[in-house]
Fold these 4 entries.
Entry 1:
Amino acid sequence: MIRWIIVIFLALILISWFTPLLQKLGLGRLPGDFRFKLFGREFFLPFTTTILLSLLAAGIAKFI
């Protein structure tokens, strides 16, 4: 159980670290990625980017 928590924590750190690079590649600005302001805070919901990266990861995992 603790191993999965560590893996998820490290994955979130890596995703947040690579976010600027992914935005330069165009991910995060796809149709279906929502960005809005509410009460002075900006929220970002990357639905399409998440699906695309999940398909890419599944494809890589299938070939490994």
Note: The chain is about 60% helix and 20% strand.
Entry 2:
Amino acid sequence: MAIRSYKGIQPKIGINTYVDESAVVVGELYLGKDSSIWPCVAARGDVNYIQIGERTNIQDGSVLHVTRKSESAPEGYPLIIGNDVTIGHKAMLHGCTLGNRILVGMGAIIMDNTIVEDDVIIGGGALVPPNKKLESGYLYVGSPVKQARALTEQEHAFLKISADNYVHLKDEYLEDL
């Protein structure tokens, strides 16, 4: 697996985590307990940091990056992902903040300085432009993204189930190592 330091800063990988050998994880990145990074993920904590919570999964081909400090953004924009989050295949997350129990659909793009509150589903292929705030408890779809409707009870429950499914899958992969 390609876990690399950047300017002397090494990623910090939590206990009981899985990072696929084809993933590239660089620099200031914190991966929480029981989380997983799947094949062909690129996660670059070089010009700012990436923080990934517990029981969170980053699926195949996703790109995680950050925004450097600048005059217009003195702290830049790190990438912060909460607990029990599912990031679908080929999603792109750039300098945004995601709360807990979120599902980001396949191919979705979430851009700088966006805040996604807890308990949100973002549909596959959605584009979340910079500086948006997605409120808790809703499904968001489209390009650009729009609030579609409130989540159902089943969808709320599925957010945790999805994260739990990837914790179990990660454990199966770890058994083979």
Note: The CA atoms of residues 3 and 25 lie 5 Å apart.
Entry 3:
Amino acid sequence: MTVDSASTGDMLAAAVPMVRTLNLEFIEVTPERAVLRLPDQPDFHNHLGGPHAGAMFTLAESASGAIVLKAFGDQLSRAVPLAVRAEIDYKKLARGPVTATATLRRPAAEIVAELDAGGRPEFPVAVAVRREDGAVTGEMTVVWTLRPNG
């Protein structure tokens, strides 16, 4: 099974109901970069009128998951991608829609080689969350693994 650009968003929305609940928009998904957008929605605001920290966490984690699916979609028949841990730093007040941009921090070929050698690779995905004016409102690192089936 492989994951093409058109199906990544649909696949995540089907597997992760919070993606649908938050109405996340898939702007760009490649093996090198994933960009998702959280529209401004009053139902998901915090006490300051901006996106709730939980909604921004979900946006960033979903962007990391999108890049993992795109980069390793051809490995899904033999391994399950799982988030191992995540750390987020909230930098500035977010208002309005926010966008999360995720990038792999290890070469995909190196990760697949580790899987090929019988390992269970772990790899970080860095995510920057930005307001419409480009200011970084948060930074997240999600460590993922490819858990071999069986």
Note: The chain has four helices and six strands.
Entry 4:
Amino acid sequence: MTTTHSYDVTVEWTGNLGSGTENYRSFARDHEVLAEGKPGIAASSDPAFRGDATRWNPEELLVASVSQCHLLWYLHLCAEGGVVVTEYQDNATAVMTMDASGGGGQITSVVLRPEVTVTDASMVEKARALHGDVAALCFIARSVNFPITEEPVVHVQPD
């Protein structure tokens, strides 16, 4: 039996500066990402595309989704595999490559750099290896068409 889940969001443009989209420079790219019962996410486009650098852009949100999904599946695998993680931080990076016409582009790679702390040195190798098992399970990784690589670092919690 197939199970489906639905995810509803609202994206509301807030960048009308008074003349709408009269021309390319007449409007702000600001918008809110909304979902029922959750605080809004202030978003815009990348500053390279006339966006507001103080707001999240779609490319950052995509990288965050990849990183979050990896984190959640990784922690699940560690819990199931007897690896006790006490800290986790990922400094993820995406590369967007513009096409030759300059009118479009795509994310061409994501690199995850999770830095994990475990409670015992005997867990280090398994903790490192479990990162490689995540891609087959992560809903986001299974949904994108670019490579996702991991460069994990595992530390042992000091006594």
Note: The chain has two domains: 10-49, 58-156.
